[in-house]
Amino acid sequence: KQLSSSQIRQMYLDFFKSKGHTIEPSASLVPVDDPTLLWINSGVATMKKYFNGSVVPKNPRLTSSQKSIRTNDIENVGRTARHHTLFEMLGNFSVGDYFKKEAITWAWELLTSDDWFGWDPELLYMTVYPQDDDAKQFWQEAGVQPDHIIEAEDNFWDIGEGPSGPDSEIFYDRGKSFNNLADDDPENYPGGENERYLEVWNIVFSQFNHEPDGSYKPLPRKNIDTGMGLERVVSVFQNAKTNFETDLFLPMINATEDFSDGKKYNADPKLDISFKVIADHSRAITFAIGDGALPSNDGRGYVIRRLIRRAVVNGRKLGINGAFLYKLVPVVGEVMKSYYPEVLEQADYIAKVVKSEEDRFNETLTDGLALLNDLVAKTKKSGAKEIDGADAFKLYDTYGFPVELTREYTLDEGITVDEDGFKAEMKKQQDRARNARSKNESMGVQSDLLINVKSASEYVGYTQLDVKAAKVT
Ligand code: ATP
Ligand code: MG
Ligand code: MG
Ligand code: MG
């Protein structure tokens, strides 16, 4: 079937509407009343209020296409076919209403019926938790061949105390030509780390409560929570090599070609990574700023800063010297306008924010890159394997290089960064700032300068939070 991304999104929502679900709008990326999460990272993250009983939904059957950000995947972007920082998660939810049988039967109908996706059953594989006999039975009753049902020990969704249960993931066989591994590689199966079997959907059967004492008690009211990556589904429909060769990303890639010094997508695998990173990050920063976040040195703001700076460095690799990322904001707005008209409406404001961050980084970027290249050369020459922590800190502090960016840049050269050394330097600076502050405070001085120093050093600590948050689905 030839379908656009907008049609596919709508088809999913319409299918579950036809099964009695209410369509929930895509919620803000900035979590509301949830200090455990930096960003909304899945559909279910916005539904916690229903699942924990604090809000009772009018209809216990809900469906949505939820914009989500996962920072734990930043470094995968551009290197795998399937990972983004911002993506849309299609989902259907049952708040104590239907359970495993309906969830499985409907999933199969959506995927294979000619009225809906119409995918070839031969190309679909389901993983199930080994003890979950019900799931195995329901998949078979729906029509899945037994040799397409695969047991996987890690198909159990559990984030500590609270609702938990087995899950079932659906993989689409993209064919041998997508294989990045040898045919006999042990990872070459649905669920392994490979590019052939694409994970498109995760269906969670939350049926236990993980008790404080570590035991699992059956829940009186069982829930369904699912997540399907829109971009991956679109890549299948549009027969794209990766998520990027689809109507969701090509407009930004093509615009970036025009900004470059004549570089073309699909000509050099190394440069393709840069095109993909830019296309991906342009979406994430546009949506994040549209939802009210701003670049800064901590929390969400640091994520935006890191994404913008990573995109700008990748722009340099394509021969782009001035600010350009801000020009992708209206392109993103145009691509997404059917479901997210508010992005295009705010495009001028978002572009202004992006441009000022780009300009600021561009001021020091040429010198920063020169220093970094010197450091790499020096390190290689001395036979060392690591960039000094103090040097990485100087790059951060003076030239605005997030340490993750330095790490990624040198990784390509086979060199790592002494991150403990970096942290130690960061801490020294924080201590200096604290001392200066307390001295000045005791004299009753409050200067803007000090407030700036404070925010410039308070960025550590988001990573742990984020890793925890990434386990929601
Ligand atoms: P993967 O193993 O490919 O990293 P996952 O198991 O971490 O995916 P889930 O947490 O199960 O992903 O999320 C549900 C669905 O959301 C996935 O099946 C996939 O289709 C989609 N998805 C997850 N992470 C990403 C991402 N970074 N970019 C695009 N889609 C994603
Ligand atoms: Mg993942
Ligand atoms: Mg997975
Ligand atoms: Mg999964």
Automatic annotation (TrEMBL):
Residues 3-473 form the Alanyl-transfer RNA synthetases family profile domain. It comes from the Bacteria. Its cofactor is Zn(2+). It is found in: Cytoplasm. This is Alanine--tRNA ligase. It catalyses: tRNA(Ala) + L-alanine + ATP = L-alanyl-tRNA(Ala) + AMP + diphosphate. GO terms for cellular component: cytosol. Its main location: cytoplasm. It comes from Secundilactobacillus collinoides (Lactobacillus collinoides). Consists of three domains; the N-terminal catalytic domain, the editing domain and the C-terminal C-Ala domain. The editing domain removes incorrectly charged amino acids, while the C-Ala domain, along with tRNA(Ala), serves as a bridge to cooperatively bring together the editing and aminoacylation centers thus stimulating deacylation of misacylated tRNAs. Binds 1 zinc ion per subunit. Catalyzes the attachment of alanine to tRNA(Ala) in a two-step reaction: alanine is first activated by ATP to form Ala-AMP and then transferred to the acceptor end of tRNA(Ala). Also edits incorrectly charged Ser-tRNA(Ala) and Gly-tRNA(Ala) via its editing domain. Belongs to the class-II aminoacyl-tRNA synthetase family. Keywords: Aminoacyl-tRNA synthetase, ATP-binding, Coiled coil, Cytoplasm, Ligase, Metal-binding, Nucleotide-binding, Protein biosynthesis, RNA-binding, tRNA-binding, Zinc. The keyword Membrane does not apply. One of its GO terms (biological process) is alanyl-tRNA aminoacylation. Its EC number is 6.1.1.7.
